[in-house]
């Protein structure tokens, strides 16, 4: 399987699965989420926003151009239609006219999609912390 095929397969996961993979892939490199907890929280904020915006909710995995525009606006990136189309050309790695959470996060953190596609499933040495953070997130969502 080529890099682009691997990337497309990753984008088929739910928003939560994509967020988890992204955090693991860049836990010790790039944004180094293991050392930058605030940036790790940003990943979860974007994940939650995708779930809120997507009519499929937490079962969703990608947004069309209109919903992608709403997501960027939610994070203070108000764009004209022309500007949004230019951003879509930059964000939409697999050119399917939809944007998965991975594509948004790669754009947000200015990372290379090939690094994400080639990442191994488990990274970092703080898996206990990641498990604890995942449990806290699930508890918070259940409380809502």
Task: Tell me what the structure shows.
The protein has 144 residues and is mainly alpha-helical. Helix content is 62%, strand content 4%. The protein contains 8 helices and 2 strands, in the order H-H-H-E-H-H-E-H-H-H. It has a two-stranded antiparallel sheet with strand order 1-2. The longest helix has 17 residues, at 37-53. It is globular.
Helical residue percent band = 55-70%
In terms of DSSP E residues, the strand content is under 5%
Order of helices and strands: HHHEHHEHHH
Rg from alpha-carbon coordinates = 15 Å
Helix/strand-derived category reads mainly alpha
Rough outline: globular
Low-confidence stretches: none
Could you report the average pLDDT, rounded to the nearest whole number? 88
**Largest beta sheet: strand ordering:** 1-2
Number of strands: 2
Largest sheet: 2 strands, antiparallel
Q: Quickly count the helices.
A: 8
Distance from N terminus to C terminus (CA atoms, Å) equals 40 Å
């Amino acid at each position: 399987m080529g890099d682009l095929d691997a990337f497309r397969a990753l984008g088929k996961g739910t928003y939560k699965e994509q967020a988890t993979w992204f955090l693991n892939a860049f836990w010790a490199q790039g944004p180094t989420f293991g050392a930058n907890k605030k940036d790790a929280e940003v990943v979860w904020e974007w994940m939650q926003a995708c779930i809120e915006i997507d009519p499929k909710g937490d079962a969703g995995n990608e947004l069309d151009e209109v919903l992608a525009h709403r997501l960027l606006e939610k994070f203070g990136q108000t764009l004209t239609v022309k500007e949004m189309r230019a951003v879509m050309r930059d964000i939409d790695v697999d050119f399917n006219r939809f944007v998965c959470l991975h594509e948004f996060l790669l754009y947000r953190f200015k990372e290379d999609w090939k690094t994400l596609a080639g990442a191994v499933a488990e990274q970092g040495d703080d898996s206990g912390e990641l498990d604890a953070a995942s449990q806290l997130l699930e508890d918070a969502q259940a409380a809502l």
